[in-house]
Amino acid sequence: MFAGQVPYRDFFMEYPPGALAVFLPPEIFGNAHYNAAFKTLMALCGAATIVLVALVLAELGASQRRIWVGVGLLAVSPVALGPISLNTYDAWPALLTVLALWLLLRGSELPAFAVLGLAVSAKVYPLVLVPLAAWFVWRQAGMRRVVAALGVLILVVVAAVAPIAAYAPHGVYESFHAQATRGLQIESLGASVLLV
Q: ∠79-80-82 over CA atoms, to 5°?
């Protein structure tokens, strides 16, 4: 991209368009420092996710001990994953997903679904939370609010994906398809269960 090629059109990009939000900013530090800047950005996303997990647990009424245990386990998880935890952009959709959960628990359904839409535009997996989040909103605020929330989610996904899909529809389709159909990665829970 930094050489002027257009993702999804000029070269295959495995990741959905929402990933560009974390792939592009580290370039301001130049090619020589890109990797360090990217890893720093992922570490910041991870730290913010830890804070949000504590807020989610507090919102759920967890005891202080449970909050500390949950946050502690999350904080040491990069040690178990090794260098891959900072070499991939997975901290970005994870941060967005946990932020959406926290907003949902706080009763901010529309912002929660907007953030969930950003998460889906970055990686496909947050899509599995949409039915559960819709059910939660339906129980809290009724069907009209669910329809509004789903509308917000769709608008955000379209806003994130449509500009790129307009010039490279097949490439964008292939990136989402690759994310949705690829096998288990070694750091996934499913792979861990199979390894055990």
A: 65
Q: In Å, what is the CA distance from 179 to each residue of 39, 47, 184?
A: 22, 25, 10
What are the residues whose beta carbons fall under 8 Å from the beta carbon of 56, sequence distance 6 or more?
A: 98, 101, 102, 105
Q: How far is CA 184 from CA 60, 61, 192, 194, in A?
A: 31, 34, 9, 10
CA pseudo-torsion sign 113, 117, 118, 124: positive
Residue 181 in tokens: 């159909």
Rounded CA gap, 189 and 144, in Å?
36
Write out the two tokens for 187.
């750091």
**107: DSSP letter:** T
pLDDT band at 9 (very low <50, low <70, confident <90, very high): confident
30-54: pLDDT as tens digits: 888 988 999 899 889 999 999 999 9
Beta-carbon contacts of 180 under 8 Å, excluding residues fewer than 6 positions away, are 124
Which DSSP helix (H) or strand (E) runs through 91?
helix 91-105
pTM for the complete prediction? 0.84
